[in-house]
Design brief:
It is a single chain. The protein is α/β, with parallel strands linked by helices and 506 residues long. The chain has one domain (1-403, 443-506): Alpha-Beta Barrel (TIM Barrel). Helix content is 44%, strand content 14%. The protein is built from 18 helices and 21 strands. The protein has helices spanning 7-10, 35-52, 59-68, 83-90, 138-150, 172-183, 195-209, 213-218, 236-247, 268-289, 316-332, 349-364, 385-402, 414-420, 430-435, 451-456, 462-476, 484-499, and strands at 23-24, 54-56, 71-72, 78-80, 96-99, 108-111, 114-117, 125-128, 132-135, 188-189, 222-228, 233-234, 252-256, 259-260, 295-298, 302-304, 311-312, 336-339, 369-371, 376-377, 382-384. It has an 8-stranded mixed beta sheet. The protein has a 4-stranded mixed beta sheet with strand order 3-4-2-12. A hairpin with a 5-residue loop joins strand 3 (71-72) and strand 4 (78-80). The protein is globular and about 85 Å long. It starts with 6 loop residues before the first helix and ends in a 7-residue tail after the last helix.
Length: 506
């Protein structure tokens, strides 16, 4: 008897997912390096910031750092950071905060043992099994936002799931962020590409939540990522967007783009030294702008394929670096970001086993904010509809893994063992009958039928089943309508900014 595994359960029309809810990681985090080794990485990072420094390409940012006491070079760009300066500044970073969605049921906790998962972000291309790989566009952007809203393993948006390349670049942020505000109730994202675009995104999110500016300043409601242009550069546009976020008390994820052997030293330890230096510089700058403003330590250290120069993700080196980043972030008491990354060019076996390496690194390293959690393939150059569903299954399994397994008189099964006795089975035991529908993980994608049943039903692979599921989810999607007065204000703001020309390319 295989209860709960009949053909009807596996039909796409009866797609099942676990209830929505943010999970906590209850396990002790893993350590890759000893405390002495982490301290050595920390001290080396401070030495890099003090002796070599960072190129800060925003004059506005340089003036802020100068005002706060950083050491400015004669070129007006090279900034060196005294170790005490760095540690004093990052000490005001909150170790936890709440990120707000459209309503209370969509707020998420950032920091501690909490885990937030997101959609893929910033891919220029999109793919599915029917059309193949095509350039990103607004229709697919909107569809992926919808999938992020309906999937319970997604807690927030982490960027544009795919770049809507068919929209004019001056107006793209207005249409993209306002569409996300209409289509999703979960915490939103804007790109820190200059002050003007960032301010537009912040205002759209404020309007979409139906709150005033004073409330927004108290309630972080939008995230952005500021990548270091590794090695050791923060560019003008991103920093000026970061300034607007900090001034509005909104969180920035400061994430170096450190690929060992290319934009960072080839060793894991050396790449971590550079990552840590760049992230600490960003975090210190954030607190210079607005002490106490929320921020997140960003980890993205991986390596390149030294035969081709291509980025590699989901590697053993990426896994080690992510877990070690957890050690560093906990040392500073700052929430941690990492990614569900892989380098596969298709939603295939490689994409899954590399993603599993990445996800396990996130679990073992106690990552708080998982970017690119659903749909990333091709090293981030493509968003895959099928991979969204494959990732939803893997993330749901991880969430089930994080749920406690209680040990008590009921679960120990002594009575069930006595009832069954030797040489029998537990299918008909009372404990089984009481629990068979809810005790074990129920997959949304996996097919657990025997070979003959699977063959007779068409021999579909996981990617083929995923293709059916994402289509069914889009058919089932219902837009969470904004209140009429909110919709009117949002439309009015976007129309006005479009008529003003949006934000010119930088």
């Amino acid at each position: 008897m295989r209860r709960g595994r009949s053909k009807s359960v596996r039909e796409v029309t009866s797609f099942q997912q676990a209830p929505y809810g943010q999970k906590k990681n209850p396990f002790q985090p893993m350590s890759i390096f000893s405390e002495d080794e982490i301290e050595a990485i920390h001290q080396a990072s401070l030495k890099v910031l003090c002796d070599t420094g960072m190129d800060i390409q925003s004059p506005r940012a340089v003036e802020i750092l100068k005002r706060e006491g950083a050491m400015i070079g004669s070129d007006g760009r090279r900034v060196r950071f005294d170790p005490d300066f760095v540690m004093e500044k990052i000490s005001t970073t909150p170790n936890e905060f709440t990120l707000h969605g459209r309503h209370k049921g969509r707020h998420v906790h950032v920091g501690g043992q909490s885990v937030i998962n997101t959609m893929v972000a910033s891919a220029p291309n999109v793919s599915d099994l029917d059309r193949g790989r095509i350039l990103g566009n607004f229709e697919d952007y909107s569809n992926l936002i919808k999938l992020g809203e309906i999937l319970n393993t997604v807690h927030a948006l982490g960027g544009y799931p795919v770049e809507p390349c068919d929209l004019d670049v001056s107006e793209r942020h207005l249409h993209a962020v306002s569409a996300a505000a209409r289509l999703s109730t979960k915490p939103l994202f804007g790109y820190a590409i200059g002050s003007e675009r960032m301010l537009d995104a912040i205002e759209i999110v404020r309007i979409g939540r139906g709150i005033d500016r004073e409330t927004l300043l108290k309630e972080p409601s939008i995230t952005t990522v500021v990548n270091a242009n590794s090695p050791l550069v923060y560019d003008k546009a991103l920093l000026e967007g970061a300034i607007e976020m900090a001034e509005h008390n909104q969180p920035v994820i400061y994430t170096p783009f450190t690929l060992a052997g290319a934009m960072a030293p080839i060793t894991v330890a050396g790449a971590l030294v550079q990552q840590n230096a760049e992230s600490l510089a960003g975090l210190a700058f954030h607190q210079c702008v607005n002490p106490g403003a929320p921020a997140i330590y960003g980890s993205f250290t991986s390596n390149v394929d030294m035969k081709s120069g291509s980025p590699a993700f989901g590697t053993p080196e990426y896994t080690q670096a992510t877990i070690a980043s957890g050690q560093l972030a906990r040392k500073y008491k700052i929430p941690l970001r990492a990614s569900n990354a892989n380098a596969s060019n298709a939603p295939d076996e490689q994409s899954v086993y590399e993603s599993q390496m990445s996800l396990w690194a996130c679990m073992l390293g106690q990552v708080n904010f998982i970017l690119h959690g659903h749909g990333w393939i091709e090293g981030g150059l493509c968003a895959s509809y099928e991979k969204v569903i494959l990732d939803a299954e893997m993330n749901q399994m991880m969430e089930a893994f994080l749920m406690p397994s209680p040990v008590n008189n009921d679960t120990l099964g002594v009575e069930a063992i006595a009832e069954v006795g030797p040489a029998s089975h537990f299918f008909a035991a009372q404990q089984t009958l009481d629990r068979y529908e809810t005790e074990h993980y129920n997959p949304m994608l996996s097919d657990w039928r025997n070979f003959e049943s699977w063959r007779d039903a068409g021999s579909e692979t996981a990617s083929q089943r995923a293709n059916k599921i994402w289509k069914q989810l889009l058919d089932d999607y219902k837009e969470p309508k904004l209140a009429p007065e909110v919709e009117e204000e949002l439309s009015g703001f976007v129309d006005r900014r479009v008529s003003e020309g949006g934000a010119a390319p930088l």
